[in-house]
Design brief:
heterodimer, A: 799 residues, alpha+beta, Aldehyde Oxidoreductase, domain 4, Aldehyde Oxidoreductase, domain 3, 3 domains, five-stranded mixed sheet, 19 helices, 37 strands, globular, disordered N terminus, B: 178 residues, Ubiquitin-like (UB roll), DNA polymerase, domain 1, 2 domains, 5 helices
């Protein structure tokens, strides 16, 4: 909103990129990891070393003898001695605070030790013996769904209070914890009308968020009062879960949520908080628990997914039908998987108009680390499938992939597969700009220099935002005219607090230096559903705006008490209350508050969206509006090594209205960095459930060296001053992986359908092409060498 | 451990003295404690942050005798007699931001900022070592510091701007202290 040109915009002066820039460059951001509480104990966890098994014996006797050890806790202790609930989870209460009877993944917390210092706790931990009787384990949804597969949760987990948008369908096999369906049109007639039918399979692996600040919390449990300071994206979820565990009213639980040192979805739902709270309950002391890096890798991950996609196309390129089977590996505990498969389910429709759609999307328990929210929220996996496939179809039909996308992209007024009509749609603008900025030319041959070859690719994606949802905000106008914002939206680097301050500054015309954001604390700051789903700018922005409108109304009626005018004759102008048409005689906010002895003026704001889907057909309203992005990559592939370098990337994203340009750029560039890793190398490697690369020595994330030489952004605005804010925290991420893969295909003819595009896979594909006798560039080849030319190519089956 | 559990299981603490942000400092460290441990736990310098614990991410970067090093790989006892600079030592005595910090602020070269201290300290040395660094050299020099939020382009802009400004100052005829 740095549009300028308004009268007397002095309140805009002094704005910087972030309201707490000073703290951010001086090491003073008060992260949860900095918190020290008097008398606190330090906790460490003994984690399962097997993927699936019964706990037959736990011996803590030697550990107890270590001086300085205060409390040692097992799941059995919680069940036997605890007067509280032993399991938690945001949808199903399936996750034990500490393993009870059974372990279900390598890394599951089994025993917790709290001691006077961390060294003592670690020493004691090494003296604990645990014995298991190993059970057969399953690591993929297909293994877990097979007849006779070992069952992870013998008893059906309790379904607790959860979010309004979550639909539960447990009609599947015992390891499938939820199924989401879309039924639109008549799928069989859609395929019957199609001239070509394409069946392909796409996989994306489990990856980890790698926030540089690991999970950390400090819990203090007293008889009727619990205080938890924790790095979380959803303090009200932590409050609700802790209150439920301990059987306390929500008002007895205080959750303090400091700014986060990165999250990307990993800090949405409780993980270590219940453990710290249980230790505090039993020890009577505050307890600090922080994940070490290797523990972070076994706390929460992105869902690994396999998607079978069958798409029917008319000979002119129009898509008529799509049938999808999506298998989401949700790990040993459901976390938010039962909701994510909904988004990742309808998400497989993609940004295209398809009359006949049939989607089955499953969340399946397996014996690996629980998977949950991850930036992109199921859409990265869905987009990997549909955007790769549309590129493959273009090649098979010998059409320009840009033209094929343009022919099918949704436009305003068309229905999505959920039946809702699209509005504020900008896919074509985004994709066309991407084409122009990358310099797309379908007829151009890949550019070869020595052993390196360059080519370009593009992508276009659609993402929802959680609907229905609720945000509330309060503001407090003080007697010196300064303002407090009370919000439970979490600052995790995305700049939400800065955005809210800028919005408030614009609406009340107060300089940003006179606006503060209160520390997020559920005792003080009002409810917000979640800081995720790229919803805060929009949802909390609306709540804040409503709170400020409330303050303005009160200011006008207070000011009317001080003047001869009716409130209706007054207006807020240039930071003052004045008579309409006579701005020179205004009263400052300070004068209004002080002279009416108001003390302060408190405004309350509420924002709620409506929507929801039918559980059987997936019809209804999935998203209050749609997030839209296009990507275009130019890659250089080393034909000798298979190594892929992204030399140029264009990211296009629809923002509606930009409030803070630099943050829009930062988020979009950040999505690129994260997408590069997921496109080219990021992957959690398991061997029989044992994570092989749970360290930053083995698991690489993008560094400066990996960034393209050229990064070009198109943060598209509607141009209307009243345009809706569209969150862009995640939107451009899902576009990155297919754009790169599509470019690699054009460069080499190697089509990779299983992420990531490692040098090994590319090289294997190149060798396979060679073996086929120098297939012409652009021929479709899978890494294992099977030709995928032809219209009825079948890799797997949807049904 | 051989079954013998006593008070010394976690080792004796030793006195270690070094110069910390220009001030003589003595801490007590067990032999396995890292520099990050003592700077955070005893000196309460929370700008020093562990990210990976294996020297890969650069979040814990401190300057040891002027050189950027991973604090998580340095045993505290080996810091004896060294000069250690953390992000808290970058401001001048009056609390004015250094030109490096100022450039990061002007370009918003951070998001969550957990990695920022490490980048600032590595940049300090980069400016001394390669005052005429090209963008490519900047990227290579700072490749040992990871930013998971991916603020790299803004960091590059901030460092490029700094290099430019320092060169301008150095060339300005009226300045003698550049």
């Amino acid at each position: 909103m740095e549009s300028g040109g308004r009268e007397a915009s002095t309140w805009r002066e002094g704005r910087s990129g972030m309201i707490d820039s000073y703290e951010r460059v001086t090491g003073r951001v008060p992260f949860a990891t900095n918190v020290e509480v008097q008398g606190m104990l330090h906790a460490v966890l003994l984690r399962s070393q097997i993927a699936h098994g019964r706990i037959t014996r736990i011996d803590v006797s030697r550990a107890k003898e270590v001086p300085g050890v205060h409390t040692i806790l097992t799941g059995a202790d919680i069940v036997v001695r605890g007067a509280f609930k032993a399991r938690f989870g945001p949808v199903f209460r399936d996750q034990p605070i500490l393993a009870i009877d059974k372990v279900r993944f390598v890394g599951e917390p089994v025993v917790a030790v709290a001691a006077e210092d961390r060294d003592i706790a670690v020493t004691a931990l090494a003296l604990i013996d645990v014995e298991y009787e190993e059970l057969p384990a399953v690591f993929t949804p297909e293994e877990a769904m097979a007849n006779g597969a070992p069952i992870l949760h013998e008893e059906r987990p309790e379904l607790g209070a959860t979010f309004a948008d979550i639909l539960i369908n447990r009609s599947g096999d015992p390891n499938t914890c939820n199924t989401f369906k879309v039924r639109r049109g008549d799928i069989e007639s859609g395929f019957a009308q199609s001239d070509h039918i394409f069946e392909d399979v796409f996989t994306s692996p489990s990856v980890q968020h790698v926030p540089l600040e690991t999970h950390c919390c400090i819990a203090s449990v007293e008889r009727s009062r619990i205080v938890i300071t924790t790095g979380t994206q959803i303090p009200y979820m932590v409050r609700g879960q802790i209150a439920e565990i301990f059987g306390l009213p929500a008002s007895a639980v205080q959750v303090i949520a400091p700014p986060l040192g990165g999250a990307y979805g990993s800090k949405c739902y409780p993980s270590i908080e219940p453990i710290a709270a249980a230790l505090s309950y039993f020890s009577g002391r505050p307890v600090r628990l922080q994940n070490a890096r290797d523990e972070e890798f076994v706390t929460i991950t992105k869902h690994g997914v396999k998607i079978y996609m069958k798409t029917g196309v008319r000979s002119d390129g129009r898509i008529l039908a799509r049938k999808v089977l999506a298998l989401f590996n949700t790990g040993a505990y459901a976390d938010i998987g039962p909701r994510l498969i909904k988004n990742g389910g309808y998400g497989t429709n993609g940004p295209v108009s398809i009359p006949h759609v049939w989607i089955d999307s499953h969340a399946v328990y397996t014996n690996v680390t629980p998977a949950g929210a991850f930036r992109g929220y199921g859409i990265s996996q869905a987009a990997w499938a549909y955007d790769s496939q549309i590129d493959m179809i273009a090649h098979r039909l010998e059409m320009d992939p840009y033209e094929l996308r343009m022919k099918n992209l949704l436009v305003d007024g068309e229905p999505f597969c959920t039946g809702e009509l699209m509005h504020d749609v900008h896919f074509r603008e985004l994709l066309t700009t991407a084409r122009d900025r990358i310099g797309w030319d379908w007829s151009a041959a890949p550019e070869r220099v020595g052993q390196k070859v360059r080519a370009k690719g593009m992508s276009c994606i659609i993402k929802s935002t959680v609907t229905p949802s609720t945000s509330t905000a309060s503001v407090k106008l003080n007697d010196d005219g300064s303002l407090h914002i009370l919000t439970s939206s979490i600052e995790l680097g995305q700049g939400v607090h800065t955005l809210l301050v800028n919005l408030a500054s614009d609406q009340l015309q107060i300089p940003v230096g006179r606006i503060s954001v209160a520390r997020v604390d559920t005792d003080v700051t009002p409810y917000d559903q979640q800081t995720s789903s790229s919803r805060s700018s929009w949802s909390m922005g609306h709540a804040l705006t409503a709170a400020i409108s409330d303050v303005k109304e009160q200011l006008l009626s207070r000011a009317a008490e001080l003047s001869d005018e009716e409130a209706s004759q007054l207006e807020i102008r240039n930071g003052h209350v004045s008579v309409i048409g006579a701005p020179e005689q205004g009263l400052s906010y300070q004068e209004v508050v002080r002279r009416t002895r108001a003390g302060n003026i408190v405004g309350r704001g509420f924002s709620q969206t409506q929507g929801g889907l039918d559980p059987e057909s997936g019809q209804g309203v999935a998203s209050v509006h749609w997030h839209q992005a296009a990507g275009a990559a130019e890659v250089e592939v080393d034909l000798e090594t298979g190594h892929v370098k992204v030399v140029k990337y264009h990211a296009g994203v629809y923002a509606g209205r930009v409030v803070n340009q630099v943050h829009g750029e930062l988020q979009t560039e950040g999505n690129l960095a994260m997408g590069l890793g997921q496109a080219l190398w990021e992957e959690l490697l398991y061997d029989n459930g044992q994570l092989q690369n749970g360290s930053l020595a083995d698991y690489m994330i993008a560094s400066f060296d990996d960034m393209p030489d050229e990064v070009d952004l198109n943060i598209l605005e509607s141009g209307r001053p009243d345009a809706e804010l569209h969150g862009i925290g995640e939107t451009s991420l899902p576009a990155v992986m297919p754009a790169i893969a599509n470019a690699v295909f054009r460069a080499t003819g190697v089509r990779i359908t299983d992420l990531p595009l490692t040098a090994e896979k590319v090289l294997r594909g190149l060798k396979a092409l060679e073996a086929e006798g120098g297939a012409k560039n652009g021929d479709l080849t899978t890494p294992d060498g099977a030709s995928t030319d032809g219209q009825k190519h079948v890799v797997g089956s949807v049904t | 451990m051989e079954g013998e559990v006593g008070t010394n299981v976690v080792g004796e603490a030793l006195e270690v003295s070094f110069v910390l942000n220009g001030r003589a400092t003595t801490v007590r460290a067990r032999t396995h404690h890292t520099l990050v441990d003592v700077l955070r736990d005893q000196e309460h310098l929370y700008g020093v942050r562990e990210g990976c614990g294996v020297g890969m991410c650069g979040a814990c970067t401190v300057l040891v005798d002027g050189e950027p090093q991973s604090g998580c790989l340095i045993l505290a006892v080996s810091a004896e007699g060294r000069e250690i600079t953390t992000v808290e030592g970058l401001e001048d005595a009056s609390g004015e931001l250094s030109d490096i910090q100022d450039a990061f602020v002007r370009h918003t070269a951070f998001q969550c900022s957990y990695c920022t201290s490490g980048f600032l300290l590595a940049t300090k040395r980069l400016l001394e070592e390669i005052p005429d660094a090209s963008p490519h050299e900047v990227k290579t020099y700072l490749a040992g510091n990871l930013c998971r939020c991916g603020s790299y382009m803004k960091i590059l802009a901030a460092v490029t701007d700094l290099l430019e400004r320092r060169r301008t100052v150095a060339l300005a005829p009226t300045k003698e202290d550049a």
